[in-house]
């Protein structure tokens, strides 16, 4: 029940201790402000890390081949390992139950591409239809390559949005032809990629077409897979790690590579890397919480101190109240209410100031690893809950002391 006399009493008490109340409120507000800013930037770091992994599927496994660094079974080091279609087909069949998407790729690193009077060098990928999902590419216009394109070795191309801007200058590219090293390809689609302009500066053509048109024969440069993810993330990481190790061992056996040769066959596991990075982000967030809570505790100690001063100054008054029949619970409630009010008011000021600052500076932060620093509703609600608990904790000991005051002793107090 709202008691206006109680609130008038609280404000009168705080008015008598203006400086202490201001400094205590400032420490609490500063603690909440610092906590909000730290949590906002930890969220920004998390968003930045996630955006880095959005460039490709998080559960992606990439396989590359290089040169051997060790001799093995009579073979000298320095051999070039060449991946071929049969390697891809073998792995795809052996691990079919665990794979979601798969693609073998043949690349032309800096191909000269022309359209009309415009020309530039771009990376060209001969790939399979699944590669759209492995790369997290969205088709904005037209379509991606399909099985029919592969079977017919069709001279079709899907270009990135950046290439559309560079070569077509606002013209609709669908149905037009671009020249790749003098060979005409019909543009059937335009894709967008969360990785930005670098990822959108590439061209996808059917793998069979790339191998036939650019002297690829049955060679491929790399293989890409995504793992079927179970509901549990940790189990998904474990499954992905096991498949990664099994694929690496199998390829080394197929190409007579020493088991401890790390240069000849390289298998990169995005999910494993994601787990490491996300774990690091969680540690950073925990540290930020620790620093923020520590700052709040300093403010809470200040609130406790001022409440002790207030209790001491009001010893005689409290004694009179108890002599007139006030029960200890009402005394405790009075002190707790004052402590919670000071903490909540100061803390909410710091919370609003922190949220406002994040809203202003958040859009201005331009960094690949810090994006959109902000505090979500649940975190703000948790902060408010912390404030209530902190206020109650700050007032508990002064309230307990006030409840223990004996009327006869208090009345003698000068």
Main features:
19% strand; alpha+beta; 54% helix; elongated; two-stranded antiparallel sheet; 414 residues; 6-stranded mixed beta barrel; 13 helices
Q: Could you characterize what this model shows?
A:
54% of the residues lie in helices and 19% in strands. With 414 residues, the chain is of the alpha+beta class. It has 2 domains: 4-52 and 276-412, no CATH class; 60-269, no CATH class. Helix 2 (18-53) crosses helix 11 and helix 9 (270-313) packs across helix 11. The longest helix is centred in the C-terminal third of the chain and has 44 residues, at 270-313. The chain starts with a helix and ends with a helix.
Chain-wise SSE layout:
Blueprint: H1 4-16, H2 18-53, E1 60-65, E2 83-84, H3 85-94, E3 99-115, E4 118-127, H4 131-134, E5 138-142, H5 147-151, E6 156-160, H6 161-168, E7 177-180, E8 183-192, E9 202-206, H7 207-213, E10 219-220, E11 222-227, H8 233-254, E12 265-269, H9 270-313, H10 315-323, H11 328-361, H12 377-403, H13 407-412
Parallel strand pairs: 4-9, 6-8
Antiparallel strand pairs: 1-11, 1-12, 2-10, 3-4, 3-7, 3-11, 5-8, 6-9, 7-8
Helix pairs in contact: 2-9, 2-11, 9-11, 9-12, 11-12
| Oligomer category | single chain
Q: Which value, in Å, is the CA radius of gyration?
A: 33 Å
List the helices and strands in order.
Answer: HHEEHEEHEHEHEEEHEEHEHHHHH
Q: What would you call the structural class?
A: alpha+beta
Rounded average pLDDT: 81
Rough outline = elongated
Distance N to C terminus = 34 Å
Strand arrangement, major sheet: 3-4-9-6-8-7
| Number of beta strands | 12
Q: What number of domains?
A: 2
Largest sheet at a glance?
Answer: 6 strands, mixed, barrel
């Amino acid at each position: 029940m709202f008691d206006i006399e109680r609130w008038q009493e609280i404000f009168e008490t705080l008015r008598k201790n203006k400086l202490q109340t201001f400094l205590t409120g400032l420490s609490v507000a500063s603690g909440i402000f610092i906590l909000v800013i730290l949590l906002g930037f930890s969220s920004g770091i998390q968003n930045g890390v996630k955006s880095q992994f959005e460039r490709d599927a998080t559960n992606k496994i990439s396989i590359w081949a290089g040169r051997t660094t060790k001799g093995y079974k009579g073979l000298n080091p320095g051999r070039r390992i060449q991946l071929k279609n049969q390697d891809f087909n073998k792995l795809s069949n052996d691990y079919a139950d665990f794979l979601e998407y798969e693609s073998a790729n043949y690349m032309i690193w800096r191909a000269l591409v022309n359209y009309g009077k415009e020309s530039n060098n771009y990376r060209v990928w001969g790939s399979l239809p699944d590669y759209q999902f492995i790369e997290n590419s969205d088709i904005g216009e037209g379509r991606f390559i399909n099985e029919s394109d592969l079977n017919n070795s069709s001279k079709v191309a899907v270009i990135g949005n950046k290439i559309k801007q560079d070569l077509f200058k606002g013209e609709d590219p669908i149905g037009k032809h671009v020249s790749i090293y003098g060979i005409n390809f019909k543009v059937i689609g335009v894709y967008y990629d969360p990785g930005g302009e670098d990822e959108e500066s590439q061209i996808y053509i059917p793998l069979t077409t790339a191998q036939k048109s650019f002297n690829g024969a049955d060679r491929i440069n790399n293989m890409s897979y995504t793992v079927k993810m179970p509901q549990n993330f940790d189990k998904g990481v474990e499954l992905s790690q096991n498949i990664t190790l099994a694929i690496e061992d199998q390829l080394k056996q197929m190409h007579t590579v020493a088991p401890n040769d790390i240069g000849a066959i390289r298998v990169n596991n995005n999910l494993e890397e994601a787990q490491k990075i996300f774990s690091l982000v969680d540690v950073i967030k925990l540290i930020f919480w620790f620093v923020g809570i520590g700052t709040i505790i300093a403010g809470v100690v200040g609130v406790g101190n001022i409440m002790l001063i207030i209790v001491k100054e009001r010893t005689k008054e409290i004694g009179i109240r108890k002599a007139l029949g006030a029960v200890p619970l009402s005394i405790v409630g009075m002190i707790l209410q004052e402590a919670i009010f000071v903490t909540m008011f100061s803390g909410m000021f710091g919370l609003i100031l922190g949220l406002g600052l994040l809203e202003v500076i958040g859009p201005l932060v331009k960094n690949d690893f810090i994006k959109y620093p902000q505090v979500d509703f649940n975190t703000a609600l948790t902060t408010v809950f912390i404030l209530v608990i902190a206020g109650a904790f700050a007032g508990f000991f002064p309230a307990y002391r006030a409840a223990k005051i004996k009327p006869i002793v208090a009345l003698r107090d000068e």
